[in-house]
């Protein structure tokens, strides 16, 4: 059996895992690539998934073809006949076979932990409640402008373990990391860690806000004094939690710049490095609008500067980066109605940011699968920024109960119905904003599929009207 102490005591990486037996729980994207990585390293791999559908069966067939054992439709006792277990992010603590494994003292690790064992390149890890995807993609844009090879991966789309075998020490990994991915790390440690902000999220899984934050803060627990922790000093909870980090502090915020870090001097983004204050550009020059994107840009600037990227390249990216799909993405403006895809807004805080981004009357489309959010606490804020609300999906009744007394609410069982209703109700000058504030898993595989379906519906329905 491979123990936690064994892993911590490895003198060098990558480890020799040949002949070890690894069980991988979950046949989604990260589970599949982790299994392939371990198989390539000489491990005997069993992959197990409790579900059984067409995509899982297809993936299972591919893994069997290369010599792996796969079971679907349930977990057998074979899962715990192993040296260690890799848990995919979607597998909850309540999973029965996972509980049994822990009771028997088996080591459980996350996919990013495993991938880090074989990663020769420095890692920039980005976590937080909101802004992660924009920040990692923006950093990727900065690095591509330098001509250096960069791998943007993790929770953003391409799994970390699917990239590591193609990397060299001269490359850079920019990794979006969720709280789920950080739960089972042992020695994972990014050269640069970024925490964008904290707000309640995934409480259906973590149960308490404190547990959620503690999972996020694991991003810095293994850092060395020579590593960097970049954090949002405008978020009091982030600042308080980061005080315990062992690494070098770099902060960003919308006040005057601290040293070292980034801030605003009147209207300009300024970097401080201990010797000089360097003006990058005025905030009006940023390619992406909104206070949240100003903070994202500062996080990007801090990380890029810390890793030695020249200021002129950083500034060029801050001026020209086009943004990411599914985050305040304009789909179409038809009959003077603007349709916006913000499917990436899977929590309340992200949805509130979206509502603050427009001055036109807003018809909000919200709903999906609830993650334990307190919708009643924001009813007043939502009412103040919306003209009308259309709810859809599993959480529709729950949100209606929380918001229905503050503003007119209408409901649809599906996203398609919500789009059709919005098309009938929208008037010239309105913004129809899909900002669900919920997970997508009641109707869709992920937020990307939800956003893509929304875009198709809008072009077909709103374009027709």
Key features of this structure:
UDP-N-acetylmuramoyl-L-alanine:D-glutamate ligase; six-stranded mixed sheet; Rossmann fold; Protein-Tyrosine Phosphatase, Chain A; globular
How would you sum up this structure in a few lines?
The protein is of the alpha/beta class.
Low-confidence residue ranges: none
Q: Write down the overall geometry.
A: globular
How far apart are the first and last residues' alpha carbons, in Å? 63 Å
Mean pLDDT: 93
Neighbour order of strands in the largest sheet: 7-8-6-9-10-11-12-13-14
Structural class: alpha/beta
Determine the CATH superfamily of the largest domain: Mur-like, catalytic domain
CATH domain class of the largest domain: Alpha Beta
CATH architecture of the largest domain: 3-Layer(aba) Sandwich
Q: Report the strand count.
A: 20
Helix content: 25-40%
- Under CATH, the topology of the largest domain can be stated as UDP-N-acetylmuramoyl-L-alanine:D-glutamate ligase
Gyration radius, rounded: 23 Å
| Number of discrete helical segments | 17
Largest sheet: 9 strands, mixed
Number of domains: 3
Query: How much of the polypeptide forms β-strand, as a percent range?
Result: 15-25%
Description:
There is one protein chain. The protein has 17 helices and 20 strands. The protein has 465 residues and is of the alpha/beta class. It folds into 3 domains: 90 residues, 3-Layer(aba) Sandwich (Rossmann fold), CATH 3.40.50.720; 207 residues, Mur-like, catalytic domain (UDP-N-acetylmuramoyl-L-alanine:D-glutamate ligase, 3-Layer(aba) Sandwich); 133 residues, Alpha-Beta Complex (Protein-Tyrosine Phosphatase, Chain A). It has a 9-stranded mixed sheet with strand order 7-8-6-9-10-11-12-13-14, with helices on both faces. Strands 15-16-20-17-18-19 form a 6-stranded mixed sheet, sandwiched between helices. It has a 5-stranded parallel sheet with strand order 3-2-1-4-5, sandwiched between helices. α2 links the parallel β1 and β2. The longest helix has 16 residues. The radius of gyration is 23 Å and the shape is globular. The relative contact order is 0.08. The model has no long low-confidence stretch (mean pLDDT 93).
